[in-house]
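User: Fold this; tokens only.

Assistant: Input:
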Amino acid sequence: MSRGIYTFVLVASRNMKWMLTIALVLSGVTYYPAKVTAQTKQPATKQPVQPTKGKTSPQGRNSRPVFVLPKTPARLSPISGRRTGMGSRDNCPAVTTALTALVPLREEQKLSKTDKPISAIVGGLTTSQRPTFWFYVPYTQELTTSAEFVLQDSAENDIYRNAIALPPKPGIISVSLPSNTSLQVGKTYHWYLKVPCNQQQTASVPIYVEGDIQRVNLDSRMMQQLETAVNPQQKVAIYAQEGIWFDSLTMLAQMRQNNPHDASVAEDWQSLLRSVNLDNVATAPLVK
């Protein structure tokens, strides 16, 4: 091989090495950022679903209890119940808000659109053997008299009768059944609360309210709902949604008595009463 050809081959060989080296360097530069990008890219994360505002489900904590009327319970008689007493009678003083039973009122079918209801169902359901009854009483101890509570069975036999002391100031009172009196499942009972303002006259007609109460059993679906409720206020909402009036009201009244300054409980109480058109006593105090 001549010296000129040898020199040409040597130079070409060196140039190829440099070109190969440059190609490898450029290849590393273009590959490295892609690799870094692949390593630092984070997988997409699923954002938590935000709760929908304004839900009224009993399971929702932000919901307030609203009573839903159940199917019409059995009636003891066609006589209409009475949720509010008359304003004044037989020396009873005039009051701004009448004697009121804290129970739902359901107007029965009218004869025509212009007619008044022919009767009304006053009362509700309970699951308790010995439910508690609640009344707004505008009359106080100054009357020097007492109210009378009467509970009767379907044959109009008294199963409980007792004098009830009037409160020291107008407000909501409770009447509980004693240990020797209990309601049977499936039976409907009739109750009265009477306030005789004139004890001097034996024929005096008292101011009174009256209605029905029926004891029922919980079904498995409702029992499961109550078991999964996370707090008592949710249970109140469940009872109200299912039409169990006396249980929902009594649970809420007990929470008001135990937590008199709890604004949330007070709002629940007002919501429940207003859902059955008892706005006029929704803010009345509970008195012993």
